[in-house]
Amino acid sequence: MNQSSFVVSSVNVNGLRAAAGKDPGFVSWLAATEADVVCLQETRAEPDQLPAKVHSPQGWHVVLCPARAKGRAGVAIYSRVEPDGVRVGFGEAEFEDSGRYVEADFGEVTVASLYLPSGEVGTPRQEEKERFMEAFLPYLVRRRAEVEALGRGLVVCGDWNIAHTEADLKNWRGNRKNSGFLPEERAWLSRVFDEAGYVDVVRALYPDQEGPYSWWSYRGRAFDNDTGWRIDYQVATPGLAARARSGRVERYPSREERWSDHAPVTVAFGLGE
């Protein structure tokens, strides 16, 4: 891309219609963002259910990938320039049209929006999460090799639904047996970094910081007390990660001004250097 900075933002909107209906909400945030590409997760909406200001806002190209199960999951990519190419799914039949993965090419960078299943211990939802993880890791290995062979980079943005370390979860002691912080889930995410060789961009920028958390339960005063989880990541191939100049969680000014239980995670990459 012929620009010195490439800004990517990602947020689980917890229902795009609801997030867009709030004031302030998604629409005002999108109008103000500096991002070149915005990845959304858990849109839970068909295109015909969205007003024009959401499905085709001025100045944005929009790729919406709803799930076959209406009202569930759903991912999207908003971009200021039209993508060079778009691919939905990652080659696994069960998840091909589940609204959980889409990637788009922009010059030398591929940006993906991921919504990894949330899971719940002892239920079919956890089994689905485990099947997804088992299929997705080999894809990440293969995809890294493909993009790097072309001299390009890949960043997988989204809700990974796993807090990797104790620094990524305020109440880690109380969640060791809960989905999202299970030892096997954390070990799988370590494999994404150690075996597949991807980089957790925000953690690489701020290695000694607790958080910054990106999700807070609506229950109690979790947001006010910053009792959160860091489960929303931008995970990049090493060459692209090394070009990250800044990363932050756009925490809402107050509980009342939240338009999702997740906050946007935004990273600025230096390109053309």
Automatic annotation (TrEMBL):
What Enzyme Commission number does this protein have?
Answer: 3.1.11.2
Task: State the coiled-coil residue ranges.
Answer: none
CDD domains hit by this protein? Nape_like_AP-endo (cd10281)
Q: Supply the InterPro entries for this chain.
A: AP_endonuc_1, Endo/exonu/phosph_ase_sf, Endo/exonuclease/phosphatase, ExoIII-like
One Pfam entry for this protein is Exo_endo_phos
Which cofactors are required for activity?
A: Mg(2+)
- What residue ranges are annotated as transmembrane? none
Task: Report domain Endonuclease/exonuclease/phosphatase positions.
Answer: 10-262
Q: Which SUPFAM superfamilies match?
A: DNase I-like
* Keyword terms of this UniProt record: Hydrolase, Magnesium, Metal-binding
Show the GO MF annotations.
Answer: double-stranded DNA 3'-5' DNA exonuclease activity
**Similarity section:** Belongs to the DNA repair enzymes AP/ExoA family.
Which protein, by its recorded name, is this?
Answer: Exodeoxyribonuclease-3
Q: Which organism is it from?
A: Nocardiopsis terrae
The organism's taxonomy opens as:
Bacteria, Bacillati, Actinomycetota, Actinomycetes, Streptosporangiales
